[in-house]
Design goal:
This protein is α+β, with helices and mostly antiparallel strands. The chain contains eleven helices and ten strands. The strands form two sheets. Strands 2, 4, 5, 6, 7, 8, 9 and 10 form an eight-stranded mixed β-sheet that branches. Strand 5 and strand 6 form a beta hairpin.
């Protein structure tokens, strides 16, 4: 199947080729980049972000090749292999690709050798990839015989990428020694991307206009220059950006992306995968906020932030997030209560109350609608991200749970982190 890029990622680029943080002051731009795991996203979400990245990089890779990609499918003869959900396991899919282009190879033997190289559980590997199957392989003798691995841009991610590259090379060397007709593959160097694709824009908490982008590039660290593509998620704001807030923004962007793609996957796969309407969580608000209330500093800041988010969303002015409860905060809460049709109208927020739940839900609704994948072809992406893995759930590495429950837990942790750090 010939594969072409519909929309080139660079068209959505807002800040290309820069990884360092900048402490913005007096209107300058501040930018912080972190992997999803570094930002606090759970492992199941990190793995799905990895699938999104692989999809995006695949499009870019095919765009970069003259004539696009000839994608390999099981039983076919395509020259471009992509490690994505197939109807069989990763090792069998890889074995079939190698045997399709070197018929003298024993696909069953290769699959078994691949399985034997399954690495132990590594809690530092964000994506928990335990098989030595590269993300991209191209078989074009005399033109391109190379492979690439895609990993998060962290110390542990780069280490896992290096180990996976070396493990696959050991398999390649073994096959070359066993079969002289097998040409082998080298670490990739022809594909050299450096892209940033904005996929989330909003006025975070009503006070932080921000853009969040996926940034990926070929690794430049010594010894890793060939065959490894690394990625991170970057948040950029106009002004000073604190580390804790940057992490919250990144996690909110991941949540938004998963909600958008889950809706697309539901159409393709049938049934509900995860849905905001089924969201269940406990408020992190510790004590009451309002007149004659407890008004703990962090509780007040949390309520002020949520109220500011709602106010700006309806065209009003934000509330100062200073941890001091006063008439401005009381009035803003009362306005929210009235606007939302709540019976509570005294400008007080109590843990577990209708006002508390409505404020948090309004904030989350703003997040859920902020993802924007319009710069990319989304055809099949939701299916790719949420389709069941043919290798099955790794009982050694992760707890078995349904996606909605896992999503509820992710949102719960996000709100708790927001409460503690705003």
């Amino acid at each position: 199947m010939r594969y072409h890029l519909c929309c080139h990622p660079q068209a959505e680029s807002g800040f290309i080729g820069e990884r360092a943080e900048h402490a913005g002051k007096d209107g300058t731009m501040a930018r912080i980049c972190r992997t999803p795991r570094q930002a606090g996203a759970p492992l199941w979400a990190c793995a799905r972000v990895g699938r999104i990245v692989e999809w995006v990089v695949k499009q870019d890779y095919c765009f970069s090749k003259a004539g696009g990609c000839d994608q390999f499918e099981l039983g076919g003869s395509g020259t471009d292999f992509f490690d994505e959900n197939s109807t069989t396991t990763r090792c069998r899919f890889l074995a079939n690709f190698l045997a399709a282009h070197t018929p003298s190879l024993d696909a069953g033997f290769i699959s078994g050798s691949c399985e034997a190289r399954k690495k132990p559980v590594d809690p530092d590997d964000d994506e928990n990839e335990r098989f030595a199957v590269p993300d991209i392989i191209t078989h074009e003798p005399g033109v391109r015989m190379e492979f690439y691995e895609i990993k998060p841009n962290s110390i542990s991610g780069r280490r896992a990428g290096r180990e996976k590259v070396e493990t696959f090379l050991s398999l390649v060397d073994f096959l070359k020694e066993s079969d002289s007709s097998f040409p082998g593959y080298e670490r990739g160097i022809q594909f050299d991307p450096d892209r940033s694709i904005v996929f989330y824009r909003r006025n975070y908490l009503g006070i932080v206009p921000c853009e969040v982008a996926l940034h990926y590039r070929r690794c430049t660290e010594s010894g890793l220059e060939s065959g490894l593509i690394v990625y991170e998620i970057c948040v950029e704001v106009n002004g000073e950006l604190l580390e804790a807030l940057a992490k919250a923004i990144i996690v909110s962007a991941v949540i938004a992306a998963l909600v958008l793609l889950a809706a697309a996957a539901a159409e393709a796969l049938g049934g509900i995968i995860l849905a905001p309407a089924l969201l269940v969580f406990d408020s992190p608000l510790g004590n009451s906020v309002g007149r004659e209330a407890v008004n703990d500093l962090q509780d007040v800041r949390y309520v002020q932030a949520l109220t500011a988010d709602w106010r700006v969303g309806v065209g009003g002015e934000p509330v100062a997030v200073d941890g001091v409860f006063g008439e401005e905060t009381a009035g803003a809460i009362a306005d929210f209560q009235t606007s939302s049709g709540l019976d509570e109208t005294a400008g007080t927020v109590i843990p577990g109350s209708a006002t508390c739940s409505a404020l948090e839900s309004a904030h989350l609704e703003g997040i859920f609608t902020a993802a924007d994948f319009s710069g990319l072809s989304m055809d099949g992406l939701g299916d790719r991200v949420f389709r069941e893995d043919p290798d099955g759930v790794d009982q050694e590495a992760e707890e078995v749970t349904d996606t909605q429950t896992a999503f509820n837990g992710m949102v719960q942790q996000y709100l708790l982190d927001l409460h503690d750090n705003v």
